[in-house]
Amino acid sequence: MTVADPITAAAEPRATPDPALDARGLRFGYQGRAVVDGVSLAIGKREIVCLLGGSGSGKSTLLRGLAGLAAPDGGAVHFLGQPLLAPHPRAALVFQQPSLLPWLDVSANVGFGLDFARQPAIDRQARARRIHDAIEAVGLASHAHAYPAQLSGGQAQRVALARALAREPELLFADEPFSALDAITRAEMQSLLVDLVHRWHTAALLVTHDIDEAILVADRILLLAGRPGRIAREWRVDIPRPREEHGDEIVRLRLDIVAELRAATART
Ligand SMILES: Nc1ncnc2c1ncn2[C@@H]1O[C@H](COP(=O)(O)OP(=O)(O)OP(=O)(O)O)[C@@H](O)[C@H]1O
């Protein structure tokens, strides 16, 4: 019997049928200088994609563009089959800083995510249920009435995740959401993120410069490299979870990514 390799690499992106997000030929930059150029990628429904790259490779610029926060200088983004011209109500964002409103308690901060522009109207009962479920899922039921100043960094980031989930997003964008946390909290949050994405049946695009984080979390890793940045390589990661138990495969993938990062850096 032949066993499928849990890691497959490709230089060219493969087709993603019925994607949540589909981007073609994207160019983004500042003051006429392209930061990323010729970027095409798709994110499948319920797929976790990690966008990995060195500092300054354009990860945040690309994520902001894919989320509709900036218009591309070239190319186009389609979200759920429609052209994306502004942030979509079925997408949610989490950043490195949780950005909670200090005068609102946890419950109200999570509910605040339902008041964003163009969010579909929901009745009071559905709203209360969504807030309750999201807070419970991130393990903060006993802190629902605490204020941000009373929370640890990890707890505050859990609230930011709950705020995103309460919107029942089709796609969760996360830009280095755990990089300000200590190693133990960070590991907990990585597992929590995978668990929540699976329970909420959402897709996720996680930006990170941390190779190990990408390997532990992603169904697929995209490497952004070059000047201007482009998708230099992708890896499909079918290592069973919890992945910490599959050390050999993790080490092999890590070595492959490091080699590709070095090669990409040498080319620029
Ligand atoms: N508002 C801006 N105006 C001008 N240049 C910018 C702006 N934001 C980012 N840049 C530049 O664009 C390039 C890519 O930045 P970006 O933040 O997208 O990279 P990154 O891969 O997310 O980096 P990091 O991992 O360090 O956060 C950098 O050279 C940066 O200096």
Automatic annotation (TrEMBL):
Domain (ABC transporter) ranges: 21-251
Pfam families: ABC_tran (PF00005)
UniProt keyword Nucleotide-binding, yes or no: yes
Nucleus is among the record's keywords: no
Superkingdom classification of source: Bacteria
UniProt cross-references to SUPFAM superfamilies, sorted A to Z: P-loop containing nucleoside triphosphate hydrolases
UniProtKB keywords: ATP-binding, Cell membrane, Membrane, Nucleotide-binding, Transport
Gene3D superfamilies assigned: P-loop containing nucleotide triphosphate hydrolases
GO terms, molecular function: ATP binding; ATP hydrolysis activity
Entry-linked CDD domains: ABC_NrtD_SsuB_transporters (cd03293)
Family: Belongs to the ABC transporter superfamily.
The protein, known as: ABC transporter ATP-binding protein
Species, as recorded: Pseudoduganella albidiflava
Lineage: Bacteria, Pseudomonadati, Pseudomonadota, Betaproteobacteria, Burkholderiales
